[in-house]
TrEMBL record:
GO molecular function: nucleic acid binding; RNA-DNA hybrid ribonuclease activity
Region of interest (Disordered), ranges: 91-118
Residue ranges occupied by any RNase H type-1 domain in the UniProt entry: 320-475
Protein name from the UniProt record: RNase H type-1 domain-containing protein
Length: 488
């Protein structure tokens, strides 16, 4: 019967018990370690098991990778360090076992228990010291981040990098609940860093980030109980922010710095029907309490495509009289020209029904996400106009659900609409405000509003048609100075 080859951990432990004393012995050990590591790696991959080294299951993978890239001297230094560490750990364990055995045999069980309590107290003091040190380091990093923001840096990511934010996680979690809470806070910080990479930060946005950092610094865990409730404290702060936001007084105070964002009289422009004016006026108070009240659907690729395909198969034919389906897209080029478009049919299920398109020339320099949101806003405006023009909100002989469905291939714009007004204040804010207003008006007519994500440029005729029109108006805008707004 063949003898079982020693494992990677066994070879290291054997070296810790009998440390090589000559260069030749070390060379022999390197060969044995390399062979054992390779064999165990193959065995582990074949059996789908983890390393046999219970002390550190990831050590095998690290050594395999290090062996491939390190020189002999660096590889030898790594092995010497690991062997020395294992030897020290083994000697310490042996010393503790001998000490415990002597207490048991010489002084009886009582003395052994007293010794155990003494060791537990010493370990607790050591752990506490480590946690306090890491908490202080986290405080220092957060304070440094706050100072950088006070200096009005233009980019969040320029001086505050993700490795520094990782310092928050250095406060070692002691329970699973604490680990989940700290991961969530770190995710929030990553989101802030990502926002900084994607756009310039204005003074108001910079101040909001500074406020968030100050709150985080105030809630860096100081005790075991604090670590468990860290996330709860941060969520409580966010809840208070939301309450303040919906207050009309605080709302005006926070937004007064940008009159183009808060221009209330524009809210009522373009509505010739007096009935609609009343609804739009009521919307101001409504969306401050509820935000965007429609539904946003972001399915995976297959489900989103399948749902959009049903619009062409007659699946919704029995409900067609009370179903408005609109497709949107936008196009922006590197020269700053931008255009948006809406495509729709009065009845998607009837092939002879002609397509109708609406093209919009947008302000030069507009971002792609803003242009996509503008297209969605125009689609809602078209649907609202059609509903009130035909008076379908008053009488209908159809018992099916009344719904306005808008398909867009921009997930970022849909996310901003879904979170408004409780998400971050961004330049797209006035567009989303109008989207919420149009949605409220449509819902008052008895219709539901659905915004659905679809994969772009995948052969869906409505999306392709909107894309074609948006590109045409963008190119026309690039060649000539055109009037901003809808095309006839």
């Amino acid at each position: 019967m063949d003898a079982v080859a020693p494992s990677f951990a066994d070879v290291l432990d054997e070296a810790a018990r009998n440390v090589p004393e000559t260069d030749a012995a070390w060379d022999e050990l390197l060969v044995r370690i390399g062979d054992a590591a390779s064999q165990e790696k193959k065995r582990k991959d074949a059996e789908g098991q983890s390393s046999t080294d219970a002390a550190d299951p990831t050590l095998l993978d690290m050594f395999i990778q290090a062996q491939e890239v390190l020189s002999r001297e660096e590889w030898l230094a790594l092995i010497v360090e690991e062997v020395t560490t294992r030897r020290e750990r083994r000697l310490k364990e042996q010393e503790e076992q001998e000490h415990a055995a002597s207490l048991w045999t010489e002084e009886g069980p009582g003395a052994w228990e007293e010794g155990l309590e003494e060791r537990e107290e010493q370990e607790a003091v050591q752990i506490k010291g480590t946690l306090e040190e890491k908490e202080q380091r986290a405080h220092a990093y957060l304070a440094m981040n706050a100072e950088l923001l006070k200096k009005q840096h233009r980019y969040w990511e320029a001086d505050i990098t993700l490795p520094k934010l990782e310092a928050v996680r250095a406060v070692v979690p002691r329970t699973r609940a604490e680990e989940v809470a700290q991961d969530r806070v770190l995710e929030i910080l990553r989101t802030e860093a990502e926002r900084g990479r994607n756009r310039k930060i204005g003074v108001h946005e910079e101040q909001r980030m500074l406020d968030d950092l100050q709150v985080l610094r105030a809630y860096v865990p100081q005790t075991q109980a604090d670590r468990v409730t860290w996330l709860e404290a941060f969520q409580k702060y966010r809840t208070e922010q939301r309450k303040n936001f919906v207050s009309a007084k605080d709302f005006k105070k926070n937004m007064i710095h940008s009159q183009q964002w808060i221009d209330w009289h524009k809210l009522l422009q373009g509505f010739g029907d007096n009935e609609i004016v009343d609804i739009e006026t009521n919307a101001v108070a409504h969306y401050l309490d509820h935000g965007f009240t429609g539904s946003v659907f972001k399915d995976n690729y297959e489900r989103a495509s399948s749902h959009a395909d049903l619009e062409y198969t007659g699946h919704y034919d029995t409900q067609a009289a009370d179903r408005y389906v609109l497709w949107t897209d936008a196009s922006v080029n590197k020269w700053g020209a931008a255009g948006a478009a809406v495509a729709y049919k009065n009845n998607m299920a009837l092939i002879p029904t002609p397509w109708v398109t609406k093209a919009i020339t947008l302000e030069r320099g507009m971002r792609s996400t803003d242009a996509e949101a503008w297209a969605i806003m125009e689609a809602l405006n078209v649907a609202k106009t059609l509903i009130y023009a035909t008076k379908r909100y008053k009488t209908t002989g159809n018992v099916g659900p009344k719904v306005v469905v808008i398909y867009s291939d921009c997930a970022t714009a849909l996310n901003l609409i879904k979170e408004w007004p409780f998400g971050p204040v961004v330049p797209i804010w006035p567009i989303v405000k109008n989207i919420a207003t149009y949605t409220y008006a449509i819902e008052q007519a008895g219709y539901k509003v659905e915004l659905r994500w679809i994969p772009g440029h995948k052969g869906l005729l409505g999306n392709e048609l909107a894309d074609m029109v948006a590109n045409e108006v963008k190119e026309a805008s690039r060649r000539a100075h055109m009037v901003i707004g809808p095309h006839p």
